[in-house]
Specification:
The structure is a single chain. The chain has 12 helices and 13 strands. By secondary structure, it is of the alpha/beta class. The protein has a domain of 190 residues: P-loop containing nucleotide triphosphate hydrolases (Rossmann fold, 3-Layer(aba) Sandwich), CATH 3.40.50. A hairpin with a 2-residue loop joins β1 and β2. α4 packs across α5, α5 crosses α7 and α7 runs parallel beside α8. The two termini are 33 Å apart. It binds adenosine-5'-triphosphate, iron/sulfur cluster (SF4) and magnesium ion.
Length: 330
């Protein structure tokens, strides 16, 4: 197993992404800064619509840029800016440097091509392998991700596989060029709990073997407890807390994180005075000069309703809150 090293694989500074919807700006990502080291595993968590996917897709330039306005002081992957990359530059980035596993295999798998052809495509393009050599590697990869009878599967089409098998195929595709950074965007949400656990174990094993950096995106803090050493929490397009996982689970600083933990029944964490979060997430078209969480926050004060808290760094954590939860006394 290779641990994280001090070289950053992902450096995002002051990223904002805005869409236009019905003539109104949808501020999907607001001033996000995030640094991930080589080999580091980070969990990215937040309610639906908090901007997790848009932030991560920006790093691979996967957004439709006719519709999304992306602004960033820095957006570097493996030490190189991804803004301004042309088609060839993007091809060199996607696969060998960074890979994305989508929540829904239908987004990534082509229904008209065999499994073997799809897994082998990147190998042929980037490594110049013959069709037969790529097919052999595709079989090995399928075996590694736990697909039974891989020699037969490579000749099949996506619709001939179950949801769990398609997800494994997508993981095999994402790993085929051993990327330095893997972004796993809710890859298990659509699967039943047993298959989910198997996929998590599989990705973890491969991550450790290859020393890959990984961002695991999810709604589910309980799941992240098994995966990530560091957790980043998003709310309304912004990062509101970023902390080592053990510290965040034991003593969240941000009331939103505490609310997420309180609504996570599978975690054995006592928050006797906490309740699941009332209310709903902020309107992505609004841009209040206030804390976006104030309408739902049990600690909100007049200041919170008049001023937006900045994301501040204290020791090994960052949080954006005027009235953070107290650290438990030792
Ligand atoms: N192509 C698009 N056009 C317009 N708005 C978009 C587009 N993609 C995302 N958004 C909006 O951007 C915001 C953030 O979306 P995003 O998909 O990043 O959320 P998420 O945190 O990944 O949510 P989920 O957990 O449901 O996947 C949402 O308000 C969403 O509606
Ligand atoms: S700044 Fe105020 S409203 Fe926002 S999370 Fe902190 S206490 Fe709650
Ligand atoms: Mg998403």
């Amino acid at each position: 197993m290779t641990g994280p090293s001090a070289t950053p694989i992902l450096e995002i500074e002051n990223l904002s992404v805005t869409f236009q919807r019905g003539g109104r700006p949808v501020r999907a990502v607001r001033d996000v800064s995030l640094r991930l080291l080589t080999g580091e595993v980070v969990g990215l968590v937040g309610e639906s619509g908090s901007g997790k996917s848009v932030a991560m897709m920006s790093a691979m330039r996967l957004l439709d840029e006719r519709r999304a306005v992306i602004a960033a002081r820095r957006l570097d992957v493996d030490g190189r800016p991804v803004t301004g990359l042309d088609r060839r530059g993007l091809e060199a980035l996607r696969g060998p440097v960074v890979s994305y596993i989508f929540q829904d295999p239908a987004t990534a798998l082509n229904p008209l091509l065999t499994i073997g052809r799809q897994i082998g495509e990147g190998l042929r393009r980037h490594r110049g392998l013959s069709r037969e050599a790529a097919r052999r590697i595709a079989i090995d990869l399928l075996e590694r991700v736990g697909v039974p009878a891989p020699e037969r599967r490579v000749r099949q089409f996506p619709h001939q596989l179950s949801g769990g098998m398609r997800q494994r195929v997508m993981i095999a595709m994402a790993l085929s060029l051993t990327p330095k950074l893997l972004i796993a965007d809710e890859p298990t949400t659509a699967l039943d709990v047993t298959v989910q656990a198997e996929i998590v174990r599989l990705v973890q094993t491969i991550q450790r073997d290859e020393g890959m950096a990984m961002v695991w995106v999810t709604h589910d803090l309980a799941l992240l407890a098994r995966i990530a050493r560091r957790i980043v929490v998003m709310y309304g397009g912004r990062i509101v807390e970023d902390a080592p996982a053990d510290r965040l689970y034991a003593a969240p600083a941000h009331p939103y994180t505490a609310g997420l933990l309180a609504s996570t029944s599978r975690l054995d964490i006592a928050f006797a005075d906490q309740q699941p979060i009332p209310g709903s997430p902020p309107d992505p078209a609004s841009d209040p000069q206030a804390c976006a969480f104030a309408p739902r926050c049990f600690r909100a004060s007049d200041r919170c309703r008049a001023e937006r808290p900045a994301l501040e760094t204290r020791a090994d954590r960052r949080f954006a809150c005027f009235h953070p939860l107290p650290e438990p006394s030792p």
